[in-house]
Amino acid sequence: MTIEESTFGHTKENKEVSLFKLSNGFEMKVEILNYGGIIKNIFVPDRYGKVEDVVLGHDDILGYEEKSDYFGCIAGRFANRINQGRFYINGTQFQLPQNSNGNSLHGGVKGFDKQVWEAQVFNRGKEVGVSLFYLSKDGEEDYPGNMKCWVTYTLDNSNQLRIEYRAETDKTTIVNLTNHTYFNLKDGGETNILDHNLRIYASHYTPVDSNLIPFGTLDSVEDTPFDFREFAPIGDKIDQEHTQLVNGGGYDHNFVLDKNNGECNLIASVYEPISGRMLEVLTTEPGIQFYSGNFLKGDIVGKNNVPYEYRSGLCLETQHFPDSPNHKQFPSTILNPGEQFESTTIYKFGVEP
Ligand code: BGC
To answer: Which cofactor does this sequence's record say it needs (predicted)?
Structure first.
């Protein structure tokens, strides 16, 4: 178990950004930046032992600042969309910046993904990691309350990357935190992810309008292209004439997880048949946004000069449901002073024959 720290570069505002290389001695290496809490690389073996990077991203900080579609980052203070950026707390209206098609997306113009976090490394022998801290000030991106946020990445000796989130506020606010890594278990983004097999333990999902805002209903996945309760190739039904696939431009939907008891349950798996790589996702969160990279279109050139083409990466964003503040029936995203927001997600890697 080792952890190394080095300087990755400087932001345009001349803030120094550090790179943390976590290695577990079992051929898994994870590289993390304190800019945006970004997971820059995840190196894992395929079934023949070939170790390769399986996530999309950039080789330099400028790439992340200028040409990133939230690659690898922590999205916050409120991940995903809020309808017209508007919500109410105890009758008081709050208006967030409308940074995506009239809606708020992933925390606004300068969300948690674009901040430089304080970082502290640790090595406990059986696991290594880095703890990140960011203070989001009262009024930042028009959210109420000073919110302290801690995100800890831990790599252990069973090829698990654990992400623990914690937050506190001094005024009632809203919070929804996720990691926005794009995975491509075959080649890190050189080709598309349509042959990846996906399983999500969810009998329901939250259908959306053409602006990707949920109606507030929970629809059954039964007999729809959204039924991933058994492994299915992502590409099988993605182009069906289903209204929800049309609205999402493919999969860009929140799945309502069947197991939601506060424990860190196995809720999704991805298997890529050529490499044999398997990713299992465990979380304490009630939902997961499965995004099939429909907005990638080849104009972002990432690591090793690879242009990220249409659907070359997939995101599995564990979180509360989109637009929760405007849907009382959804699990609450309100955080009050004196309360702790806590959430854990694990990405566990392995291979299948
Ligand atoms: C959203 C997509 C969005 C993407 C931006 C995802 O979390 O669901 O709609 O385009 O983030 O990278």
So the answer is: Ca(2+)
